[in-house]
Amino acid sequence: MAKNDLQGALDLLILKTLSQLGAMHGYGIAVHIEEVSDALLTVEEGSLYPALHRMEQSGWLRAEWAMTESSRKAKFYSLTAAGKKQLAVREKNWEQVVKGVQAILRFA
Amino acid sequence: MGIFRRMWALGRRSKLDREIDDELREHMRLHVDADVAKGMSPDEAIRRARLRFGNPTVVKERVDAEDAALGFESFLRDARYAVRGFVKSPGFTIVAVLTLALGIGANTAVFQLLDAVRLRSLPISRPQDLTELRIVGGNKGLGVNDGMFANFTIPMWQEVRRHHDPLSGAFAWRTADVMVGKLSELKRVHGLEVSGEFFNVLGIVPWQGRLIEPQDEAACQLNKAVASYSYWKAEMGGQAITPNTTIMVEGRPIQILGVTPPGFFGLTVGDRFDLAYPTCIPPNPRREVFSFSVMGRLKPGWSIERASAYFDALSAGLFESTAPDGYSAETTKMYKSFRLGAYQAGEGVSWLREEYDSSLKLLLVITGLVLLIACANLANLMLARSSARQREMAIRMALGASRGRLLRQLLIGSGLLAMGGAALGVALAQPLSRLMVRSLETTGDAIHLVIVTDWRVLLFAAAVGVLTCMVFGTLPALRGTRVDPLSSLKAGERGVAGSRERFGVQRLLVVTQIAVSLVLLVGALLFVRSYRNLMTLDPGMRESGITIVLLGFESEHVKPESLAAYKRQLVEDVRAAPGVENVAATTMLPLRGGSWSHGVRVGRAEGQSRFTYVSPSYFATMGIPIVSGRGFTAMDTTNAPPVLIVNQMFVRKYFGGGQALGRQVQVMPEPQYPARIYEVVGTIQDTKYNDLRGDPEPMAFVPIDQFPETAQGPGMAMMVAAKDGPGAIAGIRHALAAKHPQMILQFLDFQLGIRDGLVGERMIAMLSGFFGVLAVLLVVIGLYGVLSYFITQRRNEIGIRIALGADRGRVVGLVLRDTAAMLAIGLVLGTGLALFAGRAATTMLFGLKPYDAATLVFSILLLAVIAVLASLLPAFKASRLNPVDALRCE
């Protein structure tokens, strides 16, 4: 499933975020990505939720309804073992993509 | 595992739906909470969250799409939606499904027949191993050929029986009918003469008793047989087989050993055997009579190529040792150069296949074209429907539905129609194929074909269904979803929405329909005329009021030297019977497919000629006038000089069209037919020989009294001229029964037999005629529909024209101009296609050129008149439009 493309980036961001935060709901993931990237990256809800559901179906994420700090009900996602493995693969992949892109950009 | 959970949850879609809804709603709330915490007013926070979030339904649908189970669910939803739409317009739905069912049904029916006669394997175990041996390239007409699949003489079979390394077992078989019953009431049943290995090699297990085994192959007197299941059930009452079970064959009881299982019909597809009996090998088998088909099972590890190579290597010795005596050196040399080859035979043999293969393929093309017209019609209907729904599409797009989503929905709709059509078509195909098989049956032979809807047929119907769906569904769907919401909504239901381009596609579809239906119409007329030509053809002899009498008198044991006199007396006995006007003996029945040739030499010219041995009254009986010279008389006996009557083709070929009378013709020797020199004493006009379609061939007639004694046998054929056939038959039966109680008699109607030879042409003529009419009908419907639609779309324009003073004639003209343009293009295209298609059908036409001008012109005129008539109704409707009503709609 190693995707050598840029579209896999959103998956990677979500997986990485969850590995850093543990369990988190969709809104929290979006906010985290935005804050950590200094608002350079914005995650659209129209892409975020389909991606979450797809990864849940693939068995990389597990989902649970729980209460937030502000005591609202939300669906919390967390990584499964397969998800962690997937993250490692994606991270390695991403490094290669970046290297490849940089090589092209530096080509004179 | 998630997927299973979701599948399981399919029935609880609402719960899942709610879950996603909840999740998204909570997301919004968290967003609002965060903004409010930053000090924003709640109203402003909600507005911002909504703006950011976009259309919640779209987000939800995108989440749905990721969910496989929900994807299926939404597919079902679309299907339900489409069905609701169809229920709302039942007229459209019924027309669409019926058109499709007819088109797909006709295609499936023809394919089903092709499948039955061509593709399906014999119902035996491991049919792919079955191998047939044949002389490569055939035996070139050498010797006597006993039927269509007779490739082996008995001596050849005996050689192969001894040497067949590539085959684990080999057997010989042939079809030879049996006369069952008491002598006074004989009935012909389908017989199968088989060598002892037959059932064993094929792996047929007895249903009852036992089957034929090698030790049964002893006596040449038929005394035991095996019944087929159907014969046993129908004629023997399905009674248990005991050692005492017998039936009467030619007046003598024979033992029935057992019954074959229900599925086994023999090796001829389209035929069904009733009785199988063992072969007999006479002490001195004739070496020039080809009567058997030889087959075997390929041993494991042998390929058909290797087997062929083996038999090729065997051939030199085989043909050397089995060469018949009595031929010229040249013919003998040809015989010795024959080579055997091995061929796949898993599909059995079939005269249906040989005879009607090209007809069936042609029918498949015809039905394919009909389906194409039906598709064009449907596409037009769908286009009209989709433009009517343009506003709905525009609203849905404005609400955020993607084009792909709408496209899917429309395609699901046409897919459902195609499925309905295909299902109904498959059901329709069964009776249609049966009807076609019935139409091919002749008075003499029923066709027994197992027509089942097997996987191949279903696959075919499904493929045709998908294809039609793509043809008629895709274009309307693409067009229907290519709307600009803004302009569509503004235009609303008013008349200007249909752009010129959209009309263009519909026009193109009508043009296609006209072109294709012209091809079908021309084809139909050609085939009908060709059939009529055959039916009305004068074969050069009397056709009606002729009864053929076949007489068998083996059991009278007449000595060979007195056979000629015995036969002469029989002719006189028949002549004396009441109702008989004239009678003649002949060795060859004309126009029934058989043939009889001898090699001839005239001076230096050498070649072949058809030969028939006839009694003197033959030409009078058959109404063939003697053109020059004399006919035969009772004086032309064995002791008189041999004489010949020849036809004009013979004169042209061997005498250069010059004087024929008095010329000498040398006949080449053949086994039982010694070389002879004849003198031509008369000539006749060219007549047809064994087939109405045949071209004239050189033909020669010899007095039957000069038939070589060596070739005489205990049977003969007579042509009886009698206006009242049944009366004469009764008279002849009565006259002969008294004198010859052991005689086996059979009667055939000459004309009926000739007509039987034309059933293939009749079927093609009937079906192509039917489909031609259907095509024209579809064009009428299509044209009418499209014009009506155009007029609805142009209501305003026409209303304004009328309001501004255009009279009725002008409005009618406006519509008819439309028709004329489409018609002109369609007819030009169709003419080209018809000429092209006609070339391919040349061989199937009789007495007609494929580019028959009269047929073409007539078809064009007919189609033009019909098209104009079909457009008159909508045109008049348009001219009666009330301008006030039309304009008020604005």
How are the SSEs ordered, and which strands pair?
The complex is a heterodimer of chains A (108) and B (890).
Chain A: H1 9-21, E1 24-25, H2 26-36, H3 45-57, E2 61-67, E3 73-79, H4 81-106
Antiparallel strand pairs in A: 1-3, 2-3
Helix pairs in contact in A: 1-4
Chain B: H1 2-8, H2 13-37, H3 42-53, H4 56-66, H5 68-88, H6 90-119, E1 130-135, E2 144-145, H7 154-162, E3 167-175, E4 178-180, E5 187-189, E6 191-194, H8 198-202, E7 208-209, E8 224-227, H9 229-235, E9 246-249, E10 252-259, E11 275-278, E12 289-290, E13 293-298, H10 304-322, H11 329-336, E14 340-344, H12 351-388, H13 390-398, H14 403-440, H15 455-481, H16 485-491, H17 500-536, E15 546-552, H18 563-576, E16 582-586, E17 597-602, E18 605-614, H19 618-621, E19 626-629, E20 643-647, H20 648-655, E21 664-667, E22 676-684, E23 699-703, E24 715-721, H21 725-739, E25 744-749, H22 750-756, H23 759-793, H24 795-803, H25 808-840, H26 853-879, H27 883-888
Helix pairs in contact in B: 2-3, 5-14, 6-12, 6-14, 6-15, 12-15, 12-17, 12-23, 13-16, 14-15, 17-23, 17-25, 17-26, 18-21, 23-26, 25-26
| CATH superfamily placement of chain A | Winged helix-like DNA-binding domain superfamily/Winged helix DNA-binding domain
Structural class of chain A: alpha+beta
CATH class of chain A: Mainly Alpha
Going by helix content, strand content and strand pairing, the class of chain B is alpha+beta
Strand order of the largest sheet of chain A: 1-3-2
Largest sheet of chain A: 3 strands, antiparallel
